[in-house]
Inverse folding.
């Protein structure tokens, strides 16, 4: 191949790699939004990339491209874009939060913690940052660290009910039953119409075998929201503990109606059917649970239950 041909090929490569797209960065950004709305994700990424080629500090384009990368499972590219956004604007709290969420999705809790602590260094005294740090440390089994971050979240925003529920769960892990019930009560005081808080407190009562109190809370949760799966599931579980399989079957049937893709409700209802010697129905529920689970070991464990009916 002659020198002239090599020069031509090199020029074409340079043009395609480095030449700027026609139009403005804003034009390509808008096209990217349209493609993303139509779920044409490859085309959306291309348009956001074109916008960035025209303006390498176009934060909105980086952010939208990161969202598409995250949606399509390309986490490394999403991380790269969020890091670029933070480099361009270190004060952008939401991008730290989004970046930490991706790390959590990957199971990298330690990197998520590092990211949130970077946000704190930028003076982001946000209760959400402290709450998320508390949750991460709680998941790592570091209850005291979790409590310290929940304390900070409550100090910054004492009227946020969910922070009290989170802290109550941390206290529960430490065995401090007096403080955890105080926090559950405070959450309900702040948001008496939130069914989630009643179910959270009911689960605490179930662990402590305070079944009457648990049932009162679950009844209240269902009165607030008649379509809340976890309330029916928890009340069905409570009925089994109280040796009332008929009530358990009723609540678990409603839980399954609300969310038919849940393995746990089928498994629990199968136990209730077994207690009533309704073997055919129990077997069917176990088989449904097998269909819903992807874990080989769980499938085997359920099959063992069927074999022992």
């Amino acid at each position: 191949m002659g020198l002239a041909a090599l020069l031509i090929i090199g020029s074409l490569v340079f043009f395609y790699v480095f030449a700027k797209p026609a139009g403005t960065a804003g034009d390509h950004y808008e096209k990217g939004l349209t493609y993303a709305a139509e779920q044409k994700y490859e085309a959306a990424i291309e348009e956001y990339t074109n916008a960035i080629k025209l303006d390498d500090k176009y934060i909105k384009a980086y952010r939208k491209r990161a969202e598409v990368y995250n949606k399509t499972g390309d986490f490394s590219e999403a991380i790269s874009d969020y890091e670029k956004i933070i480099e361009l604007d270190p004060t952008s709290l939401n991008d730290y939060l989004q970046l930490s969420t991706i790390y959590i999705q990957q199971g990298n809790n330690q990197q998520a913690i590092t990211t949130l602590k970077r946000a704190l260094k930028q003076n982001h005294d946000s209760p959400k940052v402290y709450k998320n740090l508390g949750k991460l440390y709680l998941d790592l089994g570091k209850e005291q660290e979790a409590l310290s971050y929940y304390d900070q979240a409550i100090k910054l925003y004492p009227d946020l009910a969910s922070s009290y529920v989170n802290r109550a769960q941390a206290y529960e892990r430490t065995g401090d039953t007096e403080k955890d019930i105080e926090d559950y009560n405070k959450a309900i005081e702040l948001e008496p119409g939130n069914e989630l808080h009643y179910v959270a407190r009911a689960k605490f009562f179930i662990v402590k075998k305070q079944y009457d109190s648990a049932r009162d809370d679950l009844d209240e949760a269902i009165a607030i929201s008649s379509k809340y799966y976890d309330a029916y599931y928890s009340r069905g579980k409570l009925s089994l503990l109280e040796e009332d399989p008929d009530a358990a079957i009723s609540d678990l049937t409603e839980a399954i109606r609300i969310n038919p893709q849940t393995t746990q409700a089928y498994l629990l209802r199968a136990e209730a059917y077994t207690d009533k010697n309704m073997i055919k129905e129990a077997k069917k529920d176990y088989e449904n649970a097998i269909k819903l689970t992807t874990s080989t070991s769980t499938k085997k464990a359920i099959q063992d239950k069927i074999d022992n009916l």
Summary: The chain is about 80% helix and 0% strand. Confidence is low (pLDDT under 50) at residues 10-17.
